[in-house]
Amino acid sequence: MQNKPVKQKKPEKQADIYAVRKQKKRRKILRRSAWFIAGAIFLIVIYQKRDVWLPKLENISGRSGVHNISEEQDQADFPITVYSGTQYQAAPLGGYLSILSDSYLHVYEHGGSTKNIRQQTYGNAILRTEGEFGLVYESGGTRFRLETAEKAVYEKSVSDQIIYGTVSAKGYAALITMSDTCACKLFIFNEKGQQIHQRDCVEQLSCLCFLPDSTGCYAVSIGTEAGSMQSYVHKYSFSEKSAIWKSKPLDTFAISVYNTNDGGVCLIGDRRAAYLTAGGGILHEYMYPDTFEQGCFAGDTAVILTSNKEQRTRTLTVYPLETGQPVTKSYGKEIRSVGIYPERREVLVQMRSKVLELDYSCEMKNSIPVMDGCDRFLRIGADLYLLGYNTVDRVSLS
Length: 398
Prior knowledge:
Methylamine Dehydrogenase, Chain H; mainly beta; four-stranded antiparallel sheet; about 50% strand; about 10% helix
């Protein structure tokens, strides 16, 4: 019977060599892992700050669409490219164009060059502006801040989730929040960030607008009657606990509310629009013929866009406070956006490749060609900013 060969142990010196090799290999793997993690972090940081460096890179490489114009004018950097993981928001801020992306608030000069950039970290940020002031708040969160074109004035937070916010021309901020003790709460802060009013509401508020002097507001609450959504307008003073008045129910779900020049109210809802007197009485009502698409108000005139899918038509309605008589015009083509130019008593209608300038009788005054890639616009003065998926262009009204 043969004996099995006995395994010989490796010499100690050879074992040490193997151990050293394993340590070197481990260190090499660790170094590679560290470099990989560092590179990943670097790429994440670069991506998060893309709103800052990509526009600069485009300016250097000459891909920013720069137009040569006279030295007396601003340098034209349009179209502007917007880098955002979500749909961006655009609004006038002190006469400048402001754009809120998922990471930054950009403020642009008239010619398109960057005036200011400020980072924001809100999860679901909403931008509201009026005059020189802007309010950025975290919808569903608790943080908010007051902005101007030059700087962030202050940043604060509330204890409950924010449902709605708006700002006045004097820099007052209004926030409607959720509450465990009442239907909702209304907070008012002045331009210094000091809380000047709180209201524990027994009815759920959906939207509001400030009075012209910022001493109070018109707020809308939502209720139901016979299975239908109803809207009630309340007038509040920030120096009084009780409401000054509450309107009769309006058979619509309020989308927005505005001041009129005579101290009354314009309400735009999903089924009708209405004008109320300064005392809360219903002055005029207009029930839409078709499905509501969008609406806006300025200069005591409301503009409503509705659509009829069966007939494949869209109807533009000009609804002035002065007469209370709607003027309508139907189109068999796509309408992407509507607006008002009250200083000229004009209605602006964006089609697929042009913007129409109409008078308040819906008669054509002018047509401006625009790029097909823009699906909405923003008017600041005599300029139209055409808002596309990730670009902003500018045209001047005649």
